[in-house]
Amino acid sequence: MAVEIKVPALGESVTSAVVSRWLKQPGEAVAADEAVAELETDKVNVGVSAPSAGVLGPHLVPEGEEVQIGTVLTTVGEGKGAPSKPATAKAAAPAPAASASTAPPAAEAPKSAPVAADAPSDTDFDVIVIGAGPGGYVCAIRAAQLGFKVACVEKRETLGGTCLNVGCIPSKALLQSTEDYHGAAHDFAREGIIIEGIKVDLAKMQANKQGVVDANTKGIEFLFKKNGVTWLKGFGKVTAPYTIDVAGKSYKAKHIIVASGSESSPLPGVEIDEKVIVSSTGALELPAIPKRLLVIGGGVIGLELGSVWGRLGAAVTVVEFFDRIAPGMDGEVAKTFQKILAKQGFKFKLSHKVTKVEKTASGVNVTIEKVDGSGTEVIETDIVLVCVGRRAVSKSLGLEEIGVALDERGRVKVDEHYATNVAGLYAIGDVIAGPMLAHKAEEEGVALAEILAGQAGHVNYGAIPGVVYTWPEVAGVGKTEEDLKAEGAEYKVGKFPFTANGRARAMGCTDGFVKVLADKKTDKLLGAHIIGPDAGTLIAELTMALEFGASAEDVARTCHAHPTLSEAVKEAALDADGRAIHI
Fold this sequence. Notes:
Elements: E1 3-6, E2 16-22, E3 29-30, E4 35-40, E5 45-49, E6 54-56, E7 66-68, E8 72-77, E9 125-130, H1 134-145, E10 150-154, H2 161-166, H3 168-187, H4 202-227, E11 230-233, E12 236-240, E13 243-246, E14 249-258, E15 262-264, E16 277-278, H5 280-283, E17 292-296, H6 300-311, E18 315-320, H7 331-343, E19 347-350, E20 352-359, E21 364-370, E22 376-381, E23 383-386, E24 390-392, E25 425-427, H8 438-452, E26 466-468, E27 473-478, H9 481-487, E28 491-497, H10 502-507, E29 513-519, E30 525-532, H11 535-547, H12 552-556, H13 567-575
Parallel strand pairs: 9-10, 9-14, 10-11, 14-25, 16-23, 17-18, 17-23, 18-19
Antiparallel strand pairs: 1-8, 2-4, 2-7, 3-6, 4-5, 6-8, 12-13, 13-14, 15-24, 20-21, 21-22, 26-27, 27-30, 28-29, 29-30
Helix pairs in contact: 1-4, 1-8, 3-4, 3-6
Catalytic activity: N(6)-[(R)-dihydrolipoyl]-L-lysyl-[protein] + NAD(+) = N(6)-[(R)-lipoyl]-L-lysyl-[protein] + NADH + H(+)
Region (Disordered): 78-118
Pfam families: Biotin_lipoyl, Pyr_redox_2, Pyr_redox_dim
């Protein structure tokens, strides 16, 4: 029996499309999910796929002709068709609650935009996104590209959310500036570059940072205008299903997406004044270089900001509750990371908790206690940076009032299509379960926009990289060795040190190594971890390898340019089979 292939829903504001190209001819064998034609609208080009394997029927619409949504384009009938594509190539629905190291189970994506039966027919917008951070603004732009009429709610004076305004972007600007300074002050002489009288102009450094932020946030404004996204300025509160209030005005939409992000978690008993007791936001704006900086929390943010001020001369002490820094990172990498930071001047108080923070005339006294209760200590410092994690911003948005289910950590509960238990309401990014990473939020934003357009939105939660932008950088993707041991998995390890890499030697950056983890029997790549120069860039190759189900041998057999840092990746993959060349 022949199955019809129709023009799919392309967004609620799109009623027609043009058949731009036929990819398969009548009588040809096609595989399930294989694209047979391309459609074009004024917003986007979309492929139309065969629902099952078989033989393609006649073209019922010629190329160049405009067709309405639902028009039958052709059929696919019984016959000797091409074999179905492997499961790894078939779109799978995302599972936001999965951990970063666990890929979600496959599920069928919706065939059309999931608009509830009681959704209003007359709305101001098809989609309203709450929050213009990486998840929100990317979701808004992708939805607009797919033909939806879109608005994005943002209370800040600038777009970009925490990431662009007081997070990822300004911190990376300061990390780059301080890395440049440290190199000029301490490392360049080794290369015969002598700089005398070098000094820091902190005001100019801060001004440069702000210039970077401004350029990025203005770029989002430009992208909104380019893609026709309306910026609703003000605080957004959901007042009823399909309804949101922004600055006293009510708007209706068929789909409302919560992308409100996260904020710094407070430490009970410690009052942040953003002057001497600061969060990550205040740590980016210090008007003077502190002589002493105490960081509460040995995670990514604390270590990055500790590096900023440590390079400029601050004596940095990190107090961490656990017995190691960077919890969740591969253990071997974390141990090496701590040793390198210690060489840079960091002091660590592991397995300690803060019991009291008291301002004094000369700074701050911080009382710490060993986790086992065996002793206390008072540390005098100038600035205290509180970095004990982040929490979802889900309060004051009207969610609980309309019955939206939250978990025990205040995160919005969603299903495999990012839908909440309230019709027409969705959530993505830091406000739902999963790693609080800007790129994870972006991927979810794209996936949800495509799901709403009837496409197969997809996020592989087993292939989301994490990066620490210290120097050297630290990056990882997939399973850690601890994960595999806990699972009882049989695996093998390939490692290669940067001391044996020619480019790293030329750069004078030989600390660290590349480590790959592969299945002992099948050689399939399971995880990869890097500590070394440009680790955040190098991890992309291994993330792609994970995404496509590659083996360590696949990476090893790929030609890498010489001399590059990426050769260390190839050598680590070779080492997984015991055949590294350069060590």
